[in-house]
Amino acid sequence: MADPTIPTTGSPATNSTAGTPGLTATAVNKGEMFTSFDVDAFEVPSPREEVWRFTPFRRLRGLHDGKATRTAEAEISVEGAGDGVAVETVGRDDSRLGDGGVPFDRIAAQAYTSFTQATVVTVGKEVDHTDPITLTVTGPGVDEVAFGHIQIRLEPFARAVVVLDQKGSGTYAENVEFVVGDQASLTVVNVHDWADDAVHVAAHHVRAGRDSVIRHFAFSFGGNLVRLSPVVHYDAPGGDVELWGLYFADAGQHLEQRLLVDHSQPHCRSNVVYKGALQGDTTGDRTREAHTVWIGDVLIRPEAEGTDTFELNRNLVLTDNARADSVPNLEIETGEIVGAGHASATGRFDDEQLFYLQARGIPEDQARRLVIRGFFREVIAKIGVPDLRERLEAAIEHELQISGA
């Protein structure tokens, strides 16, 4: 039975089927997708549905159909919160929860109905917090299941950098909210550094206030299966949101990124850049395939005049037995925009680049490393935290050692 403290309806996009067990909605467009806090409002997903067709259900460990029940808790610690920053542990009855967004699939709703305590970090009005605030999430442990909820709030005119560092073992589903007030500026860096056994499914709800600036980074290296779904909503004109991502899949890993940027306000901007590399098991064992999925949806509503948006996905296949699925989608409902576009490409090494480097006396293995470093450099260079940037560069070097590049 659903928790009686959980409302059965959520955002204005929710339609009248919310709260009806076994009944889901058919959305006219991405912005009208069905949302609810109630897990019973969602049917059990199937591979026939567009939003689930790339996800290996057998590896979700029951997160999608209710078989996964909470057996332990993930550990959440917060460091670097100084003056003007409040860190709270609250229950599901806290009225602020859901301000960032409402669960839009069964796993997100399951996570909302199953967590015991939420962590809320609030940066006060006009507070300029120059040092990173780090939230470390440690999984519940091997063969254990946990659910979580985090909310990051920036009051008007506040500025902050938040690092969401996720590691450890087990099965973990969560909702993370980013509520950014008027003229506030948030940079968030999410690092998935899970152990090899971990399964992680996360919904990120991003809500941008008037003239706010949001830079969202997602880096996926570890885990057996990681599925991240950021959704961006604009509350007022002038919002400026960039989503940056980097992922490196090894043999047997499934790394999936599904994004939706919903332009519902005039004169807002979005820019999406995700880059990935893949290296599978070259023995031909299909169970050891490296698989990445990137789905980028951008919706420009009729009222969103003056929108400027672009999305880009690039994938570099390093070995055989690796597959990258990349699907950019752009839905435009008004002609009064500044610009809109998307691009996607998946391929192997550029032979001309390797030839150019080798012709100048650089051995092939070093040339391959230089090409891969250069491929990721655009994203890494955007990180303004030196220690974190060095850590990410070291993680890429570790992946290159695995591939023998």
UniProtKB/TrEMBL annotation:
Q: Which family does it belong to?
A: Belongs to the iron-sulfur cluster assembly SufBD family.
The root-end lineage is: Bacteria, Bacillati, Actinomycetota, Actinomycetes, Mycobacteriales
Domain of life, per the record?
Answer: Bacteria
Segments of skewed composition (Polar residues) = 1-19
Short name of one Pfam family: SUFBD_core
Q: Which SUPFAM superfamilies match?
A: Stabilizer of iron transporter SufD (SSF101960)
Q: What is this protein called?
A: Fe-S cluster assembly protein SufD
Which PANTHER family does the record cross-reference, listed alphabetically?
PROTEIN ABCI7, CHLOROPLASTIC
Q: Which GO terms describe its biological process?
A: iron-sulfur cluster assembly
Q: Residue ranges of region Disordered? A: 1-24
Report the InterPro entries cross-referenced here. Fe-S_cluster_assembly_SufBD, SUF_FeS_clus_asmbl_SufBD_core, SUF_FeS_clus_asmbl_SufBD_sf, SUF_FeS_clus_asmbl_SufD
Q: Which residues belong to any copy of the SUF system FeS cluster assembly SufBD core domain?
A: 143-375
